[in-house]
Model the fold of this input.
Amino acid sequence: MIAVIDDDPSMRIALESLLRLYEYNLAIYDSAKSFLASNIAGYCSCVISDLNMPAMSGIELECQLRHLGCEIPIIIITASRGSALSDYTRSGGICHLLTKPFRSEQLMDHLATVLGGSKL
Done:
């Protein structure tokens, strides 16, 4: 199960369409809080999350998951650029960082790396 979390409806639709094309099992959320409230984290193999969302950012989500003992690989998607974000990615639990705009092949490559080439 892959969780997709993004407050932008068009981005959620695009990610869902792409990942369903590759036959991934998905759970789609419009916020980090709704994802956490679903109690599905323990069933997820990967989280793909936007960085900047209202109420809880992708980094705050990562911190909350670690606090709960969930070691789910996280791929962050962002329009932000900066060395602080790159430094955090290298030191923390965020597996991959994709900067918008990105090619679908980049996301699929990151997913293959995170999932070890399997579809879960």
The CA atoms of residues 4 and 82 lie 23 Å apart. Residues 2-115 form a domain with the Rossmann fold fold (CATH 3.40.50.2300). The chain has a mean pLDDT of 88. The chain has one domain: 2-115.
